């Protein structure tokens, strides 16, 4: 069997390639049945429970729970190590999304020159969860993938990552409602506004976020690390002052 053949449904992915590339004002797309169903069910059944390995993030711009890969050894950049607190299926999945096959297929799908997995984190929303529309503007070589693990989501209910043209919800141009084995993806460049509407129902939205980015052993990550991005923002503020 080909590597990864029993993990990702690549036919479904590539069917959405042209739609992704043609969407405006930034490239984004949506794929249903992203993971092969048998393997998806194993991931779904072993999705990590909310415990002290999760971080609660409650600010004026978002309320969510997140869990980094291998939280006992926290690192901004996802490591090559396994996470012994997760199932063998999640470790197999993570190993595959770090593989050259996975990265190369998303280069072909998107036309974005990503070369490496930068981040993998679990993100949960509960009642009261939200993220205001925002854009990172991380540059020309970053893809954000949101993979959903929530069955029986109601059409029209908030919870999926929406795409917008501005920093307000009135400008939403796409919002997914099927959150059962689906993937939302966007090119994290200029004006790639996205967020999550406020959740009022007593529900749980399970997802993981993958960040793919161009990396060079000489110059590092194309968008820099979080520390480098923070310092750049400080410099921009100093210039304004």
Short description:
The chain is an alpha+beta fold and 241 residues long. The protein is built from 6 helices and 13 strands.
Determine and state the CATH class: Mainly Beta
Poorly predicted sequence stretches spanning 5 or more consecutive residues = 229-241
Strand portion: 25-35%
Helix percentage range? 10-25%
- The CATH homologous superfamily corresponds to q2cbj1_9rhob like domain
CATH T-level topology: Jelly Rolls
SSE ordering: HHEHEEHHEEEEEEEEEEH
Outline the biggest β-sheet. 11 strands, antiparallel
Query: Number of helical segments?
Result: 6
What can you see in these coordinates?
- This protein has 241 residues and is of the alpha+beta class.
- The protein has a single domain (10-240), classed as q2cbj1_9rhob like domain (Jelly Rolls, Sandwich), CATH 2.60.120.620.
- The chain has six helices and 13 strands.
- It has helices spanning 10-15, 17-22, 37-45, 88-97, 100-110, 226-240; strands at residues 28-32, 55-58, 62-68, 116-125, 130-134, 142-149, 162-164, 172-174, 180-187, 193-196, 205-213, 215-216, 220-221.
- The strands form two sheets. Strands 1, 2, 3, 4, 5, 6, 7, 8, 9, 10 and 11 form an eleven-stranded antiparallel beta sheet that branches. Strands 12-13 form a two-stranded antiparallel ribbon.
- The longest helix has 15 residues, at 226-240.
- It is globular.
- The chain starts with 9 loop residues before the first helix and ends with a helix.
- 35% of the residues are buried.
